[in-house]
Amino acid sequence: MTDLSISRAADLIAQANALVIAAGAGMGVDSGLPDFRGDSGFWRAYPALGASGLRFTEVASPETFRRDPALAWGFYGHRLALYRRTVPHDGFAILRRWAAAMAGGAFVYTSNVDGQFQRAGVDPAQIHECHGAIGRLQCSRPCSLATWSADGLVPDIDEAACRWRGPLPTCPHCGALARPAILMFGDSAWIEREFEAQAERLEDWLAGVRHPVVVELGAGTHIPSVRHFGQRVVTRHGGRLVRINPRESAVALSDDVGLPMGALAGLRAIDALLPGRSG
Hints:
By secondary structure, the chain is α/β, with parallel strands linked by helices.
């Protein structure tokens, strides 16, 4: 059944004139990034937080920046450094090649904050980061709607304790604590203006495409933002869905395809069946 499904997925991609790349946390696993699946997965990635019994939803919270900013920045600073040194896996290049062959082009919708699509050479103007980006900073108050680049920030982390060492990042406008421009749990202070602009560009692009194929990668049901978006594209724009997920690959419609595979393995398997696009 999987071979037939791979063949069907290749047909959907070959016949489409536009590509929607919908990526969740599982997209980064093949690059060596953790996906924080459940508390146990989070604690394997951050043993110090596991020893303290702190859950991902507790640490990834504006409250932690208020209560223990060195811990909050220890976690996010470590992630920032990790994402900077991570090399995107070959699946990103496969998607770029598919996109280049589409008459209508492509757009990325991702819940990942890691900037890996940009690092892989995807045009930032063709990316919507629905949960924000770790490469952008904002005021924790916030004092304004401004965000700024984290490029000049050099994390200094005590990894054994998951704590930031030295002076904490501050807002250049008011001097208050800075934080990543990421949508956290229980977050009412996220500055989403530039990410709303990304969403507007995506909607403008979608308005001009017909019958796109949505390639959904590593997007689960626990935080269903990516899945909901992909389904909306299928419903409103006459699209089809190729869902690649090793654990949650089921699809609701018979014309769609679900592949119980990791992102890289699934992309490679489909790519091998696309005439003139493999290699």
